[in-house]
Automatic annotation (TrEMBL):
Ranges annotated as spanning the membrane: 84-108, 164-185, 211-230, 251-269
Cross-referenced Pfam families: Acyl_transf_3
Sample GO molecular function, one term: acyltransferase activity, transferring groups other than amino-acyl groups
Protein name as catalogued: Acyltransferase 3 domain-containing protein
Keywords assigned by UniProt, alphabetized: Membrane, Transmembrane, Transmembrane helix
Domain spans labelled Acyltransferase: 164-296
Origin organism lineage: Eukaryota, Metazoa, Ecdysozoa, Arthropoda, Hexapoda
Length: 319
């Protein structure tokens, strides 16, 4: 037998959707998974078919199946650079260039200042020769300078130092809890083991790790109240607008950079059967509602559009 050269090559397409389960209870026995109403359902179809075709077929067979077209992918599916991705890469590249140049300038300037062979007059000429730009601006992106300030330990008699220990303990519990959460909610898992594990007493400190998050609410409230009382004792006015403006300017640049990374570059860093669903839950809502996160109002407007990691920013800003 010979293959016709004009014959179209059949290729497959992997699609992911939801299979809705009719879990009507037929007995009075309570089972662990009675609350499950839907489950992820993968299927392979010819590349010429659409998600709507699969849904029509499943309806005829008596299945309640919902296939999402954006979650379908073929062997040649890959993300392409768009204008947003190019803009993000260019912006991050400029910031990286500023960091390199600023670090070189900062190290060179520090080395010149510490050189005993130069006279004070020469150092003065060096400072004045940089087109009149202040030294702190030219070194503001220095990795050396910022790293040194970031890791510097400053003692202040007015600080409540024991709160640092509480923060560390709460952060450890939160990190461990998220680690177990990621492991237990993988596509391939033993549901019965997970259900048994979460009901064991020795695991409650991980299962109930959300109380560790509440610790940050309490600590933030304590620190704001303490800062307010210190200003009152010193006869200083507590300007609440300035207080929140300082917080906003301190937190928002790093949050904006993270959002740009998510909407512009994250799609190139993953692949696999579950990746389109991850993009649908993370990248697409972030593209549409990015300004919710920048205004820290996701918990008031729509909790489903926030990025998981931004909850820490919201806690720090609001509380």
């Amino acid at each position: 037998m010979y293959r016709d050269e004009n014959e179209t090559k059949l290729s497959g397409k992997y699609c992911l959707g939801y299979l809705y389960v009719n879990n009507t209870r037929v007995s009075t026995i309570t089972r662990p998974f009675d609350k499950i109403h839907r489950m992820l359902f993968p299927t392979c179809i010819p590349s010429g078919c659409t998600a709507l075709d699969v849904q029509h077929l499943s309806t005829g067979l008596g299945f309640n199946l919902s296939i999402i077209e954006n979650w379908c992918q073929t062997a040649g599916s890959q993300s392409e650079f768009d204008h947003l991705s190019i803009t993000v890469v260019t912006l991050f590249g400029c910031v990286a260039l500023f960091m390199v140049l600023s670090t070189i300038y900062d190290l060179y300037n520090r080395f010149i200042r510490n050189c005993k062979s130069l006279k004070r007059y020469d150092i003065f000429l060096l400072k004045s020769s940089i087109t009149g730009v202040p030294n702190w601006i030219l070194s503001s992106f220095s990795v050396y300078k910022n790293g040194k300030e970031l890791f510097a330990i400053k003692h202040n008699s007015e600080e409540i130092e024991c709160l640092y220990g509480l923060r560390v303990l709460a952060m450890v519990v939160i990190v461990i809890g998220h680690t177990f959460l990621v492991v237990h909610f993988q596509p391939i898992r033993n549901e019965y083991f997970v259900d048994h594990w979460v009901h064991q007493v020795q695991n409650m400190w991980i299962v109930k790790g959300d109380y560790a998050v509440d610790t940050f609410f309490v600590l933030s409230g304590i620190l704001v109240s303490y800062s307010f009382m210190l200003k009152i004792v010193k006869n200083h006015k507590f300007n609440i607008i300035q207080h929140y403006l300082n917080r906003y300017l301190r937190l928002t640049p790093s949050l904006a950079a993270f959002i740009l990374f998510v909407v512009g570059l994250l799609k190139f860093l993953g692949s696999g059967p579950m990746w389109p669903s991850f993009e649908g839950y993370t990248i697409e809502p972030c593209k549409e509602h990015w300004w919710y996160n920048l205004l820290y109002i996701t918990n008031y407007v729509n909790e489903k559009v926030h990025l998981g990691i931004t909850i820490n920013f919201t806690i720090t800003f609001v509380f």
